[in-house]
Each structure stands twice: as structure tokens, then as C-alpha cells.
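User: Can you predict the 3D structure for this chain?
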Amino acid sequence: MTYIWDFAGQQLYYITHRIFLTSEAVYVVLFNLLESMYDKGKKRIHKGDKNVMTYDMTNIQIIKYWMRLIFTYAVPVESLQQQLQTKKPQIAVVGTHSESLPGTDEDKNKKIEEQFAIIFEEIKGTPYECHVVRKMYAIDNKFPTQSKMLTTLKQDVGRFLKAMPKTIPLKWLEFQYILQENGRTTLRMSYSKVCEVATSCGISVKNLIHTLNYLHDLGIIFEISKDESSFEVFLELMKQFGLLCEKIKNQESKHRSFFVPCRLKRSKDNVSIEHDTAQMVSIYMASEDFIPDSVFHPLVVSLIGMVQDMGYTAMLQLFSNYANIHLGLEHTLSLGPVVINNKPSLKLEILRVPIIQEDGTIRDILESVCR
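Assistant: Here is the predicted structure, written as C-alpha cells:
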């Protein structure tokens, strides 16, 4: 049995992709052969998503981003050596629109070879290089039934999958089928109900954890908690993945409320690259091939959680691309994107707020420190 997952290409969803990556899979990373590897990638944004955080990355940077993401989250650290030996997961790079390339067949083949040569050269020496299939898959979109390379791609993917099968008891398959059928009408099942279904399929409660782990790895189920209510479990998972953070309730409020940074409005203000002063310390985070959305939002959530745990009454100004956190009356933390050497980066700025005296004058920062 084979399952096909199509990951959303809009950057808004990038923060969720790591949740669904597994080593028991073949990944197909696609790019448009008509576009140069060093051209800026086209942003897949719907007209209504004007507040989505975006960055100018080249096509080769985007391809490497996906490879790095797959390697980071689909290859468990504890079994890294074993995974490297078996080269799981496999990553196939596929160029599309081959039929639209200009010139003769010879010209088209030359262009295809040039594009793939850049990719294979760029990934040399990277930890994910051994997972990338060294084959030039250039497919024809207009006439898929006549595309020989598309047929080759299907055959190769099938061959890769057959090399990594997991043999399971037939009763596991029956158990999976029942859970999936229930999933058509309900969002979650209680642990007691899951145990009941498992028992009816001949799976003991003692060995149930192995079946659940297997289905979790496949992405068939996401979580099952022994708690009858899964609401708190879902909230905790979303917190762990940096998708949301909870506001501290005031004593008068009976309701809980949450911040979801990736869904906030976009700010016109932001941090900038400048020299530090006696009142400011800056920390920069830069990388060769990552999109800061996947780091920015979880970092905002972590900072807010840290501030709350330290007992500060934090005043928050939060946007999808900028965060300003006031720590009491003396300090602020500001976090946002910057560009360093034409590469997307992040800046964390720690600022000591000037002290305003009763007469309206501002006390010198060094003077206040000495006192």
C-alpha cells in the first residue's frame, strides 16, 4: 500500500511541513526547467494572502531548503548511521515543462543537463547529498501519457518504495481500516475506544503501542492520548511545534486566548541592521538555505514562553513578520527579518529603554547603571 502526500507550496504552510516528514518515504522535489536556478523563485501566494511573510530566494536555494528540511526531520538522529547506509529516505529531483524549452531536441537536452548539473554541484559535501537520486528527471507536462521520462520516474519511485517495505500483521491492517473509517466522521477517538477496536482486531492492549507508532509514522494518525479529552493534547502539540502560545489570563477573564504568529497581520515597521550602542545588543541568525518563517514564528513563541516563565508582565506587539516584547519598564526584545549578503536572516535586538525622570528629563544610561 502506497500513500501520496502533496505538501502545500505556499510559505504560510512551511511551518507545518516538518510534522509530516518520515524516513519511510520517497520525496519528489519539483522545479520549472524554464526558470534559471539563480532567478528569484516565484512566490505562490493567493491574492487574499497579502500578509504572508515572503523572502527573495533563488530557485536553487528553495530546492536546497527542501532537501535540508527532509534530511533534518525525516532522518532520526538515533538511527542516522543506519539511515545513511540504507539511503532512506530517497529524494528525486524533477524538472517540469521540458516540452516548453526552446530550440531543437539537442538544445533542450543541453539546457536540462545544465540545470541538473548546477543542482548536483550545489549539494556536494552536504549531509543530504547521499539521499538525492543522481538522475535527471525531465518530464513533459502537456502529453504525460507520451512522456518516457515520466514512466521512468514512476518505475523508479516504485522500486525505491519496494526496497523499504515494512511487513505488518494482517490484523494491523484491519485496525488501520477501522480507524480511518471512523476518521471520516469524527476528529478524534478516546483511548478506551481505541483499545476496544484493537481488542476486536486481535491486538492486545500491551502491544497496542507498536501498532500506534507504526500508524503515526505513516501519518495515518497524529496523536492518541489516554486522556478522554484530546483538546489539551492538541494545544500542547501546537505549542511544542511553535504554532501558537497562550496569553496569560487576567483574574477577571474566564476565557483562554492564544497567539498564532503566522496568522497575524504584517507590520510596516521592523528591525534593521545597525551598529550596537550602549543601550542595545544585537544577535543575528543567518543560513545558506533556509526560509526564516520556519524559525521566526517558533522563536517568537519560545521568547514569549520564556518571558512568561521568568515572571515578567510582558507587553506584546506581535505581527507575522515582527515581534516587540516589552520586559517590564526597562527592556524590550525585538525580532524580525533582515537581509545579510543577499540572504534571508533574522535579528534579535535587546534594547534598554531610557529612564525618564519625574522632571521629564532622560537619565543617562551609564549613570543609571553605575547607581
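The first strand starts at residue 26 and ends at 32. The chain has three domains: 11-162, 170-238, 254-370.
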